[in-house]
Amino acid sequence: QRKFVIIGLGEFGISVLKTLSDYHMEVLAIDNNPDKIQMVQTIATNAVVADATDENALKALGVGKYDIAVVAIGTNLETSVLISMLLKELGVEMVVAKAVTVLQQRVLQKIEVDKVVLPEVEGGKRLANSLLGPNILDSVEFSDKVKYIEFKTPPNFVGKTIGDLKIRNNYNLNIIGIKHSETDIEFLLQAETEIKPNDILMVIGKMEDVMKFQEKEK
Amino acid sequence: QRKFVIIGLGEFGISVLKTLSDYHMEVLAIDNNPDKIQMVQTIATNAVVADATDENALKALGVGKYDIAVVAIGTNLETSVLISMLLKELGVEMVVAKAVTVLQQRVLQKIEVDKVVLPEVEGGKRLANSLLGPNILDSVEFSDKVKYIEFKTPPNFVGKTIGDLKIRNNYNLNIIGIKHSETDIEFLLQAETEIKPNDILMVIGKMEDVMKFQEKEK
Ligand SMILES: Nc1ncnc2c1ncn2[C@@H]1O[C@H](COP(=O)(O)OP(=O)(O)OP(=O)(O)O)[C@@H](O)[C@H]1O
Ligand SMILES: Nc1ncnc2c1ncn2[C@@H]1O[C@H](COP(=O)(O)OP(=O)(O)OP(=O)(O)O)[C@@H](O)[C@H]1O
User: What is the pLDDT of residues B85-103, one digit of tens each?
Assistant: First the structure.
């Protein structure tokens, strides 16, 4: 099982920590602020107050044996760069760093951080995508062209079956499931599956095809 | 077509603006910092320097006629709350606010902001989910229980067909597509579709079923 180390317990770092802990992963949390470490004592496998720019401190913690490190310090690029470089030198296989601006991202990529996350920029794209149609309730980008999108059933779909609607042929969209409610989600769709009035369609396809569909079926 | 107003041009606000503009949406950008407004002149439909806590300024801009407002100011809860309340009072149908902490989110929800986005917290969850398996390349949460996840084909799947593998029956997962490469993505999977060595499987299912699958097929 992989071992994780998270450096920096801001909102982002803590969120990564909580999610990994929910899945019972082994996580070492490092922060130079004792209050932060105090706050996560019951969540992290281990939580240590240390200055992560101090190579000796990192060595003493055996950080090199960890598989994945997340450097979750957004406000200080120099700190984030230093820590990322030390982690790589000490042998951590994969270093993920948080950045706030695209410029920071470029610097981190230059020092060969394996993955850079920009929560603000990515969150903005995601929100904008979810706001783009009158019926689009939630939309998520999972590749450059293809998106997962949910929307309310258009009125003229109600009572028809998946087979009748031929969504793929008519609209170039792939309906992957139907949400009858937040907790009642149907994925194994058959040709005879009938659409009901409050169903939410779970669709994947290119954004432009989704918008054409919305125009047509308003 | 819906009209958007974005207040606050930090990283998040600008990202929302750029994405909406990419889709040719009508967007009014407001910020009280002239440099920010200068920066987005060619991107936004309209960009105006104004203090968005000033009700008269908002009225003069006809903000009440906008369908969706995004209040993208994370560092100052009071400002964000004031602006959100003014927008609602002026008649904006949907107000989305950015928050940094869950506590801020609760305050904004109390004043009936329609949607609160926490890019740091959500980004942390998303990253952690994508790091959870040796082969999970990218994972995205699109409902509480169900996730979209991509991973490399396990070695013993190569050469088998979708029909052979019975992924749904054996693993309770729904394979919705195969990425042969970033640009060559196949969605219309048939029983005879054969898995190739570098294929990336695009799967939806509950995280615990994905992890069971990963254990089994390492
Ligand atoms: N040299 C360091 N060693 C260890 N921890 C550090 C160091 N420098 C900063 N930190 C810690 O990193 C955490 C996050 O720092 P910072 O506030 O810069 O990040 P942020 O990106 O703004 O956080 P958020 O995720 O909330 O946006 C803080 O808890 C801080 O104590
Ligand atoms: N009263 C106001 N009226 C208009 N714009 C404002 C007001 N107060 C702040 N702003 C603008 O909002 C923008 C974002 O503010 P702030 O830096 O607080 O947000 P942030 O959440 O930290 O941004 P980011 O999205 O980069 O994380 C800034 O450009 C600032 O000039």
Answer: 999 999 999 999 999 999 9
CA of A128 to the centre of ligand 2 (A): 18
CA nearest neighbour of B29 among B15, B8, B11, B12: B8
Residues A13 and A109 in one domain: yes
Counting Cα atoms < 13 Å in the Cβ hemisphere of B201 gives 27
Q: Are B29 and B9 in contact (CB under 8 A)?
A: yes
pLDDT tens digits, one per residue of A51-95: 999 999 999 999 999 999 999 999 999 999 999 999 999 999 999
Same domain, B78 and B8: yes
- Please say which residue of A71, A90, A117 terminates a domain: A117
Ligand 2 pocket, Cβ-based, cut-off 6 angstroms: A 120; B 7-13, 30-33, 36, 51-53, 72-76, 79, 98
Q: Are B151 and B200 in contact (CB under 8 A)?
A: yes
Q: Pick from B120, B152, B184: which residue ends a domain?
A: B120
Query: Under 8 Å CB-to-CB from B166, ≥6 apart: which residues?
Result: none
Can you tell me the distance from the alpha carbon of A120 to that of B98, in angstroms, rounded to the nearest whole number? 10
**Which CATH number do you get for residue B145?**
3.30.70.1450
The edge-to-edge listing of strands for the beta sheet with A3-7 is A46-49, A26-31, A3-7, A68-71, A94-98, A115-117
